[in-house]
Amino acid sequence: MKQTPFLVLGGMLLSGACGSAMAQTSLTVYGIADAALTHLDHRAGGATTYMRGGPKDGNRIGFKGAEDLGNGVKALFVLEAGYNIDDGSMAQTGALFNRAAYLGLSDAKLGTLTVGHQYAPYFDFLTPLGPLPVVTGAAGDHPGDIDGFDVTIRNNNAVKYTSPAWRGVTVGLMAASGEQPDKPGDSGNGDAFSAAAKYDNGAWHYALGWQVLKNGPDRSAWDSTAAASFSKSPVNAGYLSASQVQYVAAGVRYQSGPLSLGGTVSNVQYRADASSLFHDTAIFNTTALLASWQTASPLALGAGVTHTRASRANGIDNAASYLQFSLMQGYWLSKRTVVYLLEATQRAHGRTLAVGGAGQIDAGAAIGVSQSGLVADSRRQSMLTLGLRHAF
Prior knowledge:
Blueprint: H1 4-15, E1 24-40, E2 48-53, E3 60-70, E4 73-82, E5 100-107, E6 111-118, H2 121-126, H3 137-140, E7 155-162, E8 169-176, E9 192-201, E10 204-214, E11 244-256, E12 259-271, E13 282-294, E14 299-310, E15 321-332, E16 337-349, E17 351-353, E18 360-362, E19 380-391
Antiparallel strand pairs: 1-2, 1-3, 1-19, 3-4, 4-5, 5-6, 6-7, 7-8, 8-9, 9-10, 10-11, 11-12, 12-13, 13-14, 14-15, 15-16, 16-19, 17-18
C-alpha cells in the first residue's frame, strides 16, 4: 500500500509515548470574521457592487487541541469550518469542516504525522511566501489561483509527514487517496501527492514545492471523487478534463523589520490522456513580485504584480497571458482587528480554450479566485474592496 511508510512512522511516534506519567491537554477555539463591500467593473450588464465575506482572510471557525503523551510525544487534532458571513451558510454545502479535519501525532525529534482532510506541504511552505500574507485573497491571488497559493486545494484521505527543523530546513511529504479503487496502469484514481522543503535563515526565507493531482474517471470536468479540489476559473476552464495537474513552485522572502520583499515563480501543467477533451499539455508559468511595509503608525501597505502566461498548445498560437497589479492598505485598530482596502486591476491577452475544450475564445480577466464567479465580460477588470476583519 502506498501509504505504508507513513503508517510505520506513526507506529514509531506512538511507541515513543510509552511510559508517560500524566497527560496534559489543551483546547483552543479560534476563527476569523471578515466582511466587505466589493465593486467590480466590466461585468455583463455593467458594474457590480455587493457584500462578500473573507476577501482579506477567509471566514472560519476552528477547534484545535493537543494532549501531552510524555517523552516529547503529543496527540493533536484540528477541525476547521469555513462559513459565509453575509448569510451564515456553510462555505461548502455538505462539508462542515471543509477547511481542515485531521488528527495525528507529533514528536519533538521525529516530526509530525497527520491523517484526514488537510493542505499539502506545497501549500504549507509556499503560501506564506506568496500573495496571501501581503496582498491577500481577492486582490492578491494569481489569476484564477492557477498555481494553488490560495486555500482552494484541499486533500481528502491524506497522510502527511512534516519533519522537525534541522539547521533551518524543514521537509514535508503527503499522499492522498481518491475514492476510486486503484487499478494497475490506471491514472484515473484521483490520488494526490506532494513534497516540499523550506529554509529559514534569519531575515531570509525560501521554499520549494511540488504536487500532482490526479483526475478521476469522469473527464467531463474535474472528477468529484478525486482526492484534491482546486480552483476552476476562465483561466483553466478548457483543461479541467486533464488526466492530472502538476505544480512546481519556488518562493523567497526577505524580512527586515517593517519591510518585506519577495517573489515567487511557478509552473503548472495540465496533462491530457485519451479521455481528455484536449490533446496537448497546457502549461501556465507565473512570476510574481511582492512588497509590504508596516509604517510607524498602525497603517500597513502592500503591493504585488503578477504575470501569468500559457503555452502555445492545442492549436492556439496566440496563447493567453494575464498581467495583474494589486494593492492593500490596512489600518490596525488592534492586534486582532483591521479596516482595509484592496485594489486590483488585470488585463488579459491572447486566446484560450472554452469550457470543456469547445474551441478557442478570447482570454478574459479573472482576478484571483474569490469573486463568487463574477468574471469579467472582457479582457479587463478592476476591483475595489472596503472591509473589516477581526480574528478571535
